[in-house]
Design brief:
about 110 residues; 7 helices; about 70% helix; elongated; mainly alpha
């Protein structure tokens, strides 16, 4: 997905108009329209402001990098897990794997 489409998608998720997004990141509404049409590309500084306003990572906004499909909330949880004691992490992984396994099983029998 190109950056313009991603901006539109994220803006609509927030129920923001182009003007509201523009106000949030201190640019004009006209430039937001250009970004959304891919007529212009945001600078790194503007893209970072935009990512922060949407609550996503810069990778997620531009769709590049190995973490591009993770939002900031997911990345924060991963960081928090990494900071846990090894035994606590093992318990958490056991629990998460059990939930994932159960969901996959339900999906297999439902379809």
């Amino acid at each position: 997905m190109d950056i313009g489409s991603k901006i539109i998608e994220l803006r609509k998720e927030k129920s923001w108009s182009q003007a509201e997004l523009a106000d949030n990141i201190s640019v004009s509404r006209v430039i937001i329209g250009k970004y959304e049409r891919n007529d212009a590309s945001p600078s790194i500084d503007i893209a970072k402001k935009m990512a922060d306003a949407f609550g996503v990572s810069l990778d997620f906004l531009v769709g590049n990098g190995k973490n591009a499909h993770f939002n900031k909330k997911t990345l924060k949880i991963i960081e928090d897990i990494e900071a846990l004691e090894p035994t606590t992490k093992d318990k958490l992984y056991f629990l998460v794997n059990a939930v994932i396994r159960d969901c996959k099983t339900q999906k297999a029998y439902a379809g």
